Amino acid sequence: MTTQQAYRLLGLKENASNIEIKKAYFKKAKQYHPDVSSNRNAQELFIQVVEAYEILTISGRKQKRFHPKSETSNAKSNFHFRNTTHQHKNYRDFTKEEFDEYYQSAKRRYEKNFERQSQKIYHDNFEEYKSGYKRKIAMAMAILGILLSIIFSFDHYQKPIDEPIDMHGIKYTFIFSKNNINYYTFTYHNQQLLIDNISLHTIAQSQTPNKLKITPIFHDIKGLYNGNSNKILAEQRISIHKLFFVFIALFLLPSFILFFEKPSFNFVFFGIYYSIFAFPILVIYLMFNDLRLIRFIETLFN
């Protein structure tokens, strides 16, 4: 690889400074590291990036030490940088065995260097997490997750409340058709329910009143039933109770993460950011979706 090719690979101009070379190297190395990149050629690109960095840094040191204007490289000096008897090879002069050996040696050096830099990044982020506000937020989210898992579990397993409903005057919106069955949605208590045309016909022909089964705490609608039968006619299109165990696992994950605090890739780039960013977004969505928080407050004051 020539110096010009190394500059192009790192996306630099030929007059780039050592600081710019180092920044470009870390950016490209992080982009093409096999543990991070999904590119099929990530390993090859990663090795080329590190090789380009070595070429440019060595070239920079040579230019600094043997600049034509320097005292050590003037016309009167008898010092020669290169041994005139040494056979300098480029890639085209390598045999396949020599190139494979050079490739594997370079690969080991590059991976060792990147692992060292990665561990430093993980350690710095971990120390910042432990000594700053992030760990306090993570602990608060862990406590909140445990409380939510208890409340939602109680709400899910308690006997639902039966609430009569008059289906006359409710507006339906057509959503899609499947197997010659049309599906519609209607809104009740700020919750969207899905119903098909067969169930609508059953409701129209029924002489008994319809009823909703509602959870006691959040007043989530579990389903619409006809009279005293256990036949469900409509249910929420998107409901936390359909994926109950998934949401419980997500609630308990922040407290689970606290048991694996260490300067590693998974904890720094997954654990910390889930606890302080992703989990609060999940809680906000669940509590404001279908005005669930307002229904919960109404339950507390009634």
User: Helices and strands, in N-to-C order?
Assistant: HHHHHEEEEHEEEHHH
Query: What would the principal axes of the Cα set say about the shape?
Result: elongated
SSE class: alpha+beta
Strands, total number: 7
Please report which band the strand proportion falls in: under 5%, 5-15%, 15-25%, 25-35%, 35-45% or over 45%: 5-15%
Q: What's the number of helices?
A: 9
Q: Tell me the span between the first and last alpha carbons.
A: 76 Å
| Main β sheet profile | 7 strands, antiparallel
Side-by-side strand order of the widest sheet: 1-5-6-7-4-3-2
Instruction: Give Rg in angstroms.
Output: 33 Å
Helix content: 40-55%
User: How many distinct domains?
Assistant: 2
Characterization of the model:
It is a single chain. This protein is an alpha+beta fold and 302 residues long. It folds into two domains: 3-69 and 98-126, Orthogonal Bundle (Helix Hairpins); 132-302, no CATH class. Helix content is 54%, strand content 14%. The protein has nine helices and seven strands; from the N terminus they run αααααββββαβββααα. It has helices at 3-9, 18-32, 42-65, 96-131, 133-157, 197-205, 244-257, 265-288, 292-301; strands at residues 161-165, 173-178, 181-188, 191-196, 210-214, 221-226, 232-236. The chain has a seven-stranded antiparallel beta sheet with strand order 1-5-6-7-4-3-2, with helices on one face. A hairpin with a 5-residue loop joins β6 (221-226) and β7. α1 (3-9) packs across α3, α2 (18-32) runs antiparallel to α3 (42-65) and α5 (133-157) crosses α8. The longest helix is centred in the middle third of the chain and has 36 residues, at 96-131. The radius of gyration is 33 Å and the shape is elongated. The termini are far apart.
